[in-house]
Design brief:
Chain lengths: 186, 159
């Protein structure tokens, strides 16, 4: 089971509202390479991992991704919370406001809602882990794109932190992949 | 690591001094210095939990920066924030070493390091919870009143 810790993984205190950035950032919540997709992809795949390393790593990285969902959600919430209706209209978010107000709703940066097809799962450890390696690299690339789009240090700090986590996760998945390639035969 | 020193410091804590001289205060908080050694496995590099937390990466040889960005400086504006940040730092070290140990469960040095951070964190969490309320629902500090639901929640701006 999971237990809630009343603290973020990394501190986030965004003082300046920025709807434009919130609109881009939402893709790391509800986009195909986002944290929500990563979390449940790993937590689904773990059941069919062939050994303790795979079961542990997918459980633990999946769990950390849940903390990243919370970080991204926190950033979007803080970027949007003081916005006026005029500012929402100006940022082109009136459709989103009509549907969801200021509530969190997982979509990509173009407003396409989250879909479970992002949970690529095949039951084949090599296929699943290589999918995960690609997902971590794609998420790293998206974090770099997002860094290019902001100059707010309160936003840059958490984005840099999250980008490093993609690098670590990629490395661990790669180590697991290489081990499975050598040792696991169907 | 001497928690008695920190505990004494906390008891003698004075908000006014803290606010007028925050840099000195941060310097005094040397309770947070820990040297981390990763002597085996594939990651033979040393990095302390403070730098590792700032970077989001406890492994020197796995750190790859982006353009000319430097990891953000984390500065607390009051004692509560400072303690929580220290807990987050130890928690982060545990998360990153956890993933490493999943892959290299026989690395005794990293296991020892994991246990060191775990003990450090436990001591600090007890002190924090006694003063500022529970971080997890099963913490034992709610004997007389229900503090769990008290704001701020993690997503709210803390300062």
């Amino acid at each position: 089971m999971w237990k809630y810790v009343k603290s973020l993984e990394y501190p986030i205190n965004i003082k300046k509202k920025d709807l434009r950035m919130a609109k881009y950032l939402i893709t790391q919540y509800g986009g195909s390479n986002g944290e929500l997709a990563a979390a449940w992809r790993y937590l689904n795949q773990r059941y069919t991992m062939p050994d303790d390393k795979g079961k542990a790593l997918l459980t633990d990285i999946g769990t950390e991704e849940l903390a990243h969902v919370e970080m991204i959600s926190t950033m979007i919430y803080q970027l949007m919370k003081d916005a006026t209706i005029d500012e929402i209209k100006k940022a082109g978010l009136e459709g989103n406001y009509a549907e969801h107000g200021k509530a969190l709703y997982p979509t990509d940066a173009n407003g396409v809602p989250f879909t479970v097809t992002y949970f690529a799962t095949t039951g084949d450890p090599l296929a699943d882990i290589s999918e995960d390696m690609a997902a971590e690299q794609k998420a790293r690339a998206v974090y770099e794109n997002l860094l290019d789009l902001t100059d707010d240090p309160d936003v840059i700090g958490p984005l840099l932190f999250l980008r490093q986590r993609e690098i670590i996760h990629f490395t661990r998945f790669k180590e697991l992949y290489e081990e499975y390639e050598k040792n696991v035969t169907k | 690591m001497n928690f008695n020193d920190y505990f004494n410091y906390i008891n003698g804590y004075n908000d006014m001094n803290y606010m007028t001289n925050p840099n000195q205060m941060i310097e005094d908080l040397n309770y947070q210095k820990q040297i981390i050694n990763i002597p085996s496995g594939q990651n033979k590099k040393n990095i302390d939990s403070e730098e590792g937390f700032k970077r989001g990466n406890m492994f020197q040889n796995l750190y790859k920066g982006y353009k000319n960005y430097k990891p953000s400086k984390l500065t607390a504006s009051n004692e509560k924030e400072d303690m929580l940040m220290q807990i987050q730092e130890y928690s982060f070290a545990l998360i990153d070493l956890n993933l490493y140990l999943d892959m290299y469960p026989n690395d005794k040095d990293t296991l020892n390091l994991f246990n060191t951070y775990l003990n450090n964190k436990k001591g600090l969490v007890d002190m924090y919870e006694e003063k500022y309320g529970p971080l997890t629902i099963d913490s034992n500090d709610q004997k007389n009143n229900w503090k769990w639901s008290k704001s701020p929640w993690p997503w709210e701006v803390q300062r």
